[in-house]
Amino acid sequence: MNKSILVTGGSGYIGSHTIVELLEKGYEVVSVDNQSNSSISAYENIYKITGKQIIHYSIDICNKELLETVFIKHHFFGIIHFAAYKAVGESVEFPIKYYYNNVNSLINILELSKKYNVNSLIFSSSCSVYGNIDKLPVSENTPLQKAESPYAFTKQIGETLLQDVCKSDSKFQAISLRYFNPVGAHISGLIGESSINKPNNLVPIITATAIGKIKQLAVHGNDYPTRDGTCIRDYIHVTDIARAHVLAMDKLIKNSPDINYDVINLGSGNGVSVLEMIEAFEKISSEKLNYTIGPRRPGDVIAVYADNTKAKKILNWNCEFDVFAMMETAWKWEKNNNH
To answer: What is the reported pTM?
Structure first.
């Protein structure tokens, strides 16, 4: 059986970790990434970890003609679609950029999947699709609220699009994995969350502040109705997320008759506040972090954490890394990457 998987956004943060897991499980991988927010050096580091070279193309998948050249050259069993812009704040500032990129890229993938008979797709979704919810933890049955940002809405659109495509084509199977907050780095310290642009996520901002790349960390608001006034999120190690993608692809490879389209939460099931994350980092690193309390940030929800029962049941998946391991691997990556 052909076990070649197309990974879009493969030199990015979650993409690179997922490629490592795919290679270690015997899959062949072809990656496409336009390197708009990632480095091609990720592929060299994947080779250092796995001893395996992968074919990769530096193309923008919003360019359908270029993307089609990849489908012509390779026969894919399945696709894992990561490629998307992902910064909540930036999406509020530049909504057209987000709608154009995130929606068009998925449409191109789906049209070419149909044309070249690729019937399995894992979609990189997000817990941001839930919006501000009243009841926690969040399960897959929690009704989606209004998206709090254009980024979140592009993920709602993507999920709806996939559901409609699956409904219209019984051969096509897709799973949307709704990540909570991916953090940490590969235990080797060779790949991690590396942003060409200024980091937007909490953990890389924490480690960049600790090492001196950023002068001061701004905590966005401490007047939320939470236990310490700061936003609460469900942080999950990137390797745990990567493993879930492989398990989901395994599920589709077996052509599970019970799956046409499904959504699955990927979270630890624990809510951790911003200040608690800072405290965890200070504990494992013995560094005192320079931070200040600033105003709330547009687009941020108050609190969100997962009910991950479905992932455990359907994918036979569990989190293997706790919050201290998340911080330890992120700090190792930051130190390795700072030369």
So the answer is: 0.94
